[in-house]
Amino acid sequence: MEQTKIGRFIAKCCENKNLTQERLAEKLGTTNKSISKWENGICLPDSSLYEPLCEVLNVSINELFAGQKIEDDNYKSVADKNLLDILKYSMYEQNKPNISYEEFSNALDILSQIITILSNFKTKQEAV
Prior knowledge:
The chain has 128 residues and is mainly α. It has a domain at 3-69: lambda repressor-like DNA-binding domains (434 Repressor (Amino-terminal Domain)), CATH 1.10.260. The protein has 8 helices and no strands. It has helices spanning 3-16, 21-28, 32-39, 50-57, 61-66, 75-95, 101-118, 124-127. Helix 2 crosses helix 3 and helix 6 crosses helix 7 (101-118). The longest helix is centred in the middle third of the chain and has 21 residues, at 75-95.
């Protein structure tokens, strides 16, 4: 998940709607400093703000996490990728491991590949 790209997208959507950071913060019940951090890619909004943010900006959750408007013919592939990114990021934030998000994401990808390979075997002995 690219926080910087998402931040630029939030800023662009606000600009298109003539929304200042202060006005968006007021609508979401947060601070303009938080909005600034999102727009600069420092952090993402709290998950409780995803839905109201999307409503205010008139974008889907998939578009928010893609950091771009998504055309109908490309929607499914972008949506699937971003849903996985959202889940990974949520797991990372909940567990706060002592590794970077990128390392965490790569580890999950490797584990997923290992599970897929191992699922082809009928028994543990066969897998070994």
